[in-house]
Write a structure and sequence with these properties.
Elements (H helix, E strand, L loop, with lengths): L1 H21 L6 E2 H12 L2 E3 L2 H4 L3 E2 L8 H11 L2 E5 L4 E6 L15 E3 L7 E4 L4 E4 L14 H4 L6 E2 L9 E2 L8 E4 L2 E2 L4 E2 L4 E2 L6 E7 L14 E6 L8 E6 L3 E9 L4 E10 L7 H11 L10 E23 L2 E21 L5 E24 L2 E20 L4 E23 L2 E20 L4 E21 L5 E12 L4 E13 L4 E12 L1 E4 L13 E4 L8 E14 L2 E16 L15 E16 L3 E16 L8 E2 L6 E11 L2 E10 L3 E2 L21 E2 L3 E15 L2 E10 L7 E8 L5 E7 L4 E9 L1
Parallel strand pairs: 2-5, 11-16
Antiparallel strand pairs: 1-3, 4-5, 6-7, 7-8, 8-15, 9-10, 11-12, 13-14, 15-16, 17-18, 17-45, 18-19, 19-20, 20-21, 21-22, 22-23, 23-24, 24-25, 25-26, 26-27, 27-28, 28-29, 29-32, 30-31, 32-33, 33-34, 34-35, 35-36, 35-37, 37-38, 38-41, 39-40, 41-42, 42-45, 43-44
Length: about 775
Amino acid sequence: MNKKLLCLIFFILSFTFCNLSYSQDQEKQPLAQIITALEEKYNVKFSFETKTIENITVAPLYPELSLEQVIHQLKLRTPLNFEILSERFIAITPLKSTESLSSIQKLEEVVVTNYLTRGISKTNNGTIEANSKAFDILPGLIEPDVLQIVQNLPGIISVDERISNINVRGGTNDQNLILYEGIRMYQSGHFFGLISAFNPYLSEDITISKNGTSAKFGNAVSSTIAIKNDDEIDGNSSGGLGGNMLSVDGFAKISLSHKTELQLAARRSFTDLAVSKTYDSYFDRIFRDSELNTTNNTLLALDERFLFYDFNAKFLYNIDPTSKLRINFLNMYNNLDYDQVYIASDNSIQESKSILNQVSYGASANYSKQLQKGFNLSAQIYYSNYDLDAKNTNVTSNQSLEQENIVEDYGLRIDLLNALNSNLNINLGYQFNEVGVTNFEDVTNPNFVSLKKEIIRTHAIFGEVERYSKSRDTHLRLGARISYFGKLQELIIEPRFAFNQKISDYFRLEILGELKSQSITQITDLQQDFLGIEKRRWQLANNSNIPLIKSQQISSGLSYNQNKLLISLEAYYKNVASITAQSQAFQNQFQFINDIGSYTIKGIDFLINKRFNNLSTWLSYSYSKNDYHFENLNNGNAFPNTLDLKHVANASFTYSKNNFKVGFGINWHSGRPFTSPSSSQDNGNSVIEYNAPNSERLPAYIRTDISAIYNFKFSKGVKAEVGASIWNIFNQTNIINRYFSLNADDSITEINNRSLKLTPNISFRVKF
């Protein structure tokens, strides 16, 4: 596959540069002419001094862009500032000295607007971008939750409804690279994965890459999700307060001077003080089948306390007209205290005290300097810390278990960008990472203590060339990343490419490809890890039983976009090698067996989206075949991946009229594979004997969601918003996982993990 991929890269490169040489020039137009056309098309009025736009020319803009996207493109392509004064009037002024920092040409352009709904767009390099400020509404959501939004995209789903378990084209969640302001995140959810841990009202831009990832990003073999807050100083202060049935939150943008700004956001649950229907549904979903559940016993008393919070801060400083500094900090926290008194099966009174904490800290500093026209230097340092700590004490049996999993990640990256002209960029860079993982376990009666710490240092250099043809019909990004993993003494070369060709006025062809690697993954040693709630712990690759994971992927897609109708079809092939059986969380005959293997997924993603004046409708469908291959498991024969969902479909409708928005959606997918016990059991073995692995399927999953948002003016200078949503409005019982356990009398119990029940939520917030 590697040779084929390299040959394809060479072919595309040769084809593209031939195309660049022979394509017809499309002359740039005077900005004054473009402004006249925009005023007529969008029914707006631009205000400016004639000399401000004299002698400025711009390449024609893509006709399907929204007004906001047009303004964004004009800001990138001209040395001007475009300020939206009202719904009809836009002021054009020369850039202030402190605003000239980003006049570096970016070749990334939107080719599909309103992808699914307003605020979600697709670019020419294959990435999907979501802007929370421009975001409209999605079914079941009343807040622009970052990690909920991405699950509406074809090829992305969470098989167990957890945000902390997003599966992109058959990959496990730990194979995703999630970056918050450049900080790698090892925790992404609150409430043990049901709620995004990223404050939706400070985050502004979300970029999702399923394939053809930029060579800047490494150490993850599946998707890349990059989250950024507002990065421009506008001299205005604003803020907001709000809450829903789980938490309260607030954010503020504080203008300190014309060169500095401070952004703050905080959120805290009130679930330790009061409970709601939403809390009850979430708690039932997570704890129903956990080790904390005592349904087989008689519960006498229960003392339960759960809370989460997060805090984010960003400091913006425009040092001078050519340089700027950005400093970020974040903190996420989850805490569970769970004490039980119950009568056990032997009629004795038992007491159990459990504590589970998840804590993440992160910080980054970003400095950029425009050295000369078209040449930009940027440097970033970051630190990320994740700590998962669990304690469980059984007072009667005088036994306690303490577990801890700590990840510390230090990073440095330097980028040099040279914009040779409006059609060509060259990017070179270096990245260093040091990742340390500590695993601690302490058991009493019998006594056992284990402490392991491992560190991997990685050096990587990367380079990319990004070019447009003069006609702007052809776009190519070609790059490679070379990484050296010190402890493993392994050098990896990873080519990447993204190719986009406009075939006609309405058709586009896209081809993406990449090779990637990953040195950190999550494994499951025992099903009772961390009280059976968080069953995974981070682990570094080594030279023995946990190898460096490697992946290769290629995809090709064709899209039609005309008259607010979008039809796209994309086929892909993805292979991920050197995975461990422990990382797949098997709950069958392979539960305590480790082996090295791979999975291969082949699939198609289809989307049709029709937009009317106030209505957007879409239907997405994905088909895939995802198989494992382990040399020493299942006699070396392939068998279905635990995450294999052959068919996934979504039908949604969103309607926006003035200040009212509503969304309605139906989600369906075929059932996950599971392994059933054999009809004949040997009771003398004290183990379950199983049929062929993952040879049976759960019933199909179906869920219907609805949400609505209404905006209104609360008072002068204050806007208000009220929202309501219902997840699973028909209270459908969906089984999302099935496994089996052996009782003390050697009888077999079937355990079914069920999805969220009917879950309502209400929110209210004000912005000022």
